[in-house]
Each structure stands twice: as C-alpha cells, then as structure tokens.
Specification:
With 20 residues, this protein is mainly α.
Length: 20
C-alpha cells in the first residue's frame, strides 16, 4: 500500500516512541 510521507512519518514516530 502506498502511503503519503506525512502518514509514514506519523507511523514512524509512534514506532519510535513505543521502541523507547
């Protein structure tokens, strides 16, 4: 699925927060 850069960044931030 192709997602917009904004959504990708938001998802990445959530993953990073959970990783921390």
């Amino acid at each position: 699925l192709v997602k917009s850069p904004r959504i990708l960044r938001l998802e990445t931030l959530r993953i990073l927060e959970m990783g921390l």
